[in-house]
Amino acid sequence: MGKTKHSGPIKLPSKPDPKLWVSKVPFGLGKVKPKHIRDTIKVMADNRDNLPYAMRILTQGVCDGCALGVSGLYDQTLAGPHVCTTRLNLLRLNTMPAIKPNVLHADIDELRKMDSTELRKLGRLPYPLIRRKGERKFSRLSWDAALDMIAERIRQIDPKQLAFYLTARGITNESYYAAAKVARFLGTNNIDNASRICHSPSKTALKRSVGIGASSCNYKDWIGTDVLVFWGSVAANNQPVSTKYMYAAKRKGTKIIVINPYREPAMDGYWVPSIAESALFGTKLADDFYQVNIGGDIAFMHGVMKHWFAMEMEKPGSAIDRKFVNEHVNGYEELRQHVKSQDWAQLERSSGISRQRMEEFAELLAASKSGVFVWSMGLTQHRFGTDNISQVANLALLRGFLGREYCGLMPIRGHSGVQGSGEMGADPFSLPGGEFKGQDIPRVEEVWGFKLPTWQGDIVGVTLENALLPEDHERKLKLFYTSGGNFLETMPEPDFVRQCLESIQIRVHQDIVLNTSTLADAEEAVIVLPAMTRYEQPGGGTSTSTERMVYFSPEIAGPRIEEARTEWQIYCDLAARVDPKRAALVQFKDAHALRAEIAKASPNYDGVQHLKNRGDVFQWGGAWLCEDGVCPTKDGRGQLIPVELPELRKPEGHFYITSRRGKQFNSMIYSNKDPFNAADRYDVLVSKNDAAKHGITEGEAVVLYNSCGSFHGRAKFADIAAGNLELYWPECNPLLPKKVYEPFAGIPEYNTAVVMERAETYHALKDTRYVEKRIAELDQEIADEE
């Protein structure tokens, strides 16, 4: 833990800097870019029936969107108000009225005609619902009947046949903590959260490399660092408020480097709406792009280090911070030998980057006295995601970019609640304040007052697969309790996921709106429980940002959904009904009492018990984790880890695909048109040269397919690395392989090889033999490479 405290927000420069302007044409007229003013007017119109409440949420609450830590309209990074379209888009989830009864109780096939966007717009869930097997519509249920039914089934099954899942949809630390405690109280370790499919490799890798499970630095460290590197992260699109920090960094002379297969327009230049100069003329953000192949980052980083070690041979200290390495790092010689053995030609093929460009980046970092490395799902959502992040940590440790101002490792979060999920113990490998092992188990048992189950719980992907196990299997999933989440739109191979969901005896959906997963059948019954938003919770709630800021969000006066309940209270009520004799162990007088227990169970959160007023905040761990290079490991030192080059499994002539986000928040889509490149949700981003090789013209219908499924879309030319394609998520999920998980962190694989053809050719020859032959060729070539 660090001893230095965060120093608070700083001011932006008052004078403009025309050198950073994207265009001298005001508001970027004529350019493809977000229309912030138009979008804001639309949000106001959508919330016109509840504008006063919407304004109170914006000015009093903590953002339930991205994890940048905006409390009200202010944060700890920059002085002045901040707001972004992501937060504005989410407003309606909190202000809309309940679903009309005639719609809610319509025939299930009528509801199934709607996608999740249309379902979301229907309104809030008003009261508990049930739909038993064979029934054509949802029926109203009382809270007592619903919870008693769930409790009765929990008593009947083996705890290993029970599982909980919590998404990041505005869920507070209090709810994560209560769910973690209740799951173990009920005897199950099958509890997981949304981090499993986004940043679980970040925590795993950082733990093994430097002993921490969170960002080591702050957003303030972006502003003034020599180099700010975004690795597989399009922060301008997914965390729009961050563009204000990037603007401030540029004004301080920071170089911004983006490493991504696609030259993302959002990172090239952005019109920051809350800065007059930028709103008018835009701001050039990235100084350079390195368009690495999908999955080629490890090779790229090997090339960087290989050049560093060569520089060291000629002039010691020219590339490696030798003092930092000698005092704070293990494994230097092992890593050096491993990297030296790498072949330049292989590194170029794997990364898609020339040796000259790798050396150029290596020299830029070597000349920088400080640096912050930021990454997101472009690095984590691989079957080798943990190795990706450990490789980034290797670079930081070799340069000493850790534990001091303007330096650090930052897995940038997309949700304002998910950082706290594992820290509260809502994770099969975690407990509040520690891991599910060693001395953390008796420590938590003492606070909770009961013994924990000792068997290892499953990650959510495996949990879902367990629904297909034989009826008498001890891990056959029979009751699945999920707070938010839509696995039909977040997991690979949706048809397989549907099969899993519909094989569960009872599914409980605790949520604020309907989505497509809610409408899937179940073996016995689907039960829907209406939850409160974070702004409705009595006693308020807390959330933890990317930079470990724990913010208090108060209860905000406004209209209420009459039967909606606080999420943490629902969990505790359920546990009390399952085991009334021990009910006192899982009861809390109020939210303040719950936070007091969190402070005892999780030492890092000592201070959360004092948060009770609007704007209250503290940062656990201080400004910088691993301060002065001292890591929370057994010997206080970081560990360099030799990482092998991954096999990308892309046969000659095929493409490798990955997913990207458009105008959306997680799987919640707000527009079918990407505001940064005008792409449709079914457009396939492909380089002009690659398209020409396949005889494909822009806008032409194409089909992508492999052994998992097929995707029908249209070619859209883009500045993307050769041999790579980008598709929108979750539309591309039918192409992604099921049951493929990263071995250390359990994140699903979200990248794969495909065949791309003109739709005319595909359909003209689409008989069974033709398609199966091509797929068989693809699978055989992959098998041969393995």
Structure description:
34% of the residues lie in helices and 15% in strands. It contains 29 helices and 29 strands. A seven-stranded mixed β-sheet has the order 2-1-17-16-15-3-4. A six-stranded mixed β-sheet has the order 25-27-26-29-22-28. β3 (162-166), α8 and β4 form a beta-alpha-beta unit. 56% of the residues are buried. The model has no long low-confidence stretch (mean pLDDT 94).
Query: Strands across the major sheet, in which order?
Result: 2-1-17-16-15-3-4
Oligomer: single chain
Shape: globular
Q: How many β-strand runs?
A: 29
- Class by alpha and beta content: alpha/beta
* N/C terminus separation: 43 Å
Major β-sheet, in short? Answer: 7 strands, mixed
Percent helix:
25-40%
Q: Enumerate the spans where pLDDT stays under 50 for 5 or more consecutive residues.
A: none
> What portion of residues belong to β-strands?
5-15%
Q: What's the layout of helices and strands?
A:
Blueprint: H1 36-46, H2 51-60, H3 85-95, H4 101-104, H5 108-112, H6 116-120, E1 129-132, E2 139-140, H7 143-156, E3 162-166, H8 173-185, E4 191-193, H9 200-210, E5 227-231, H10 235-238, H11 242-251, E6 255-259, H12 265-268, E7 269-270, H13 276-281, E8 283-284, E9 288-290, H14 297-314, H15 322-328, E10 329-330, H16 332-340, H17 344-351, H18 355-367, E11 371-375, H19 377-380, H20 385-399, E12 408-411, H21 418-423, E13 430-431, E14 434-435, H22 440-448, H23 460-465, E15 479-483, H24 494-502, E16 506-511, E17 525-530, E18 541-544, E19 549-553, H25 567-578, H26 591-601, E20 617-619, E21 638-639, E22 655-660, E23 664-665, E24 668-669, E25 683-686, H27 688-693, E26 701-705, E27 710-717, E28 724-728, E29 752-758, H28 759-764, H29 768-785
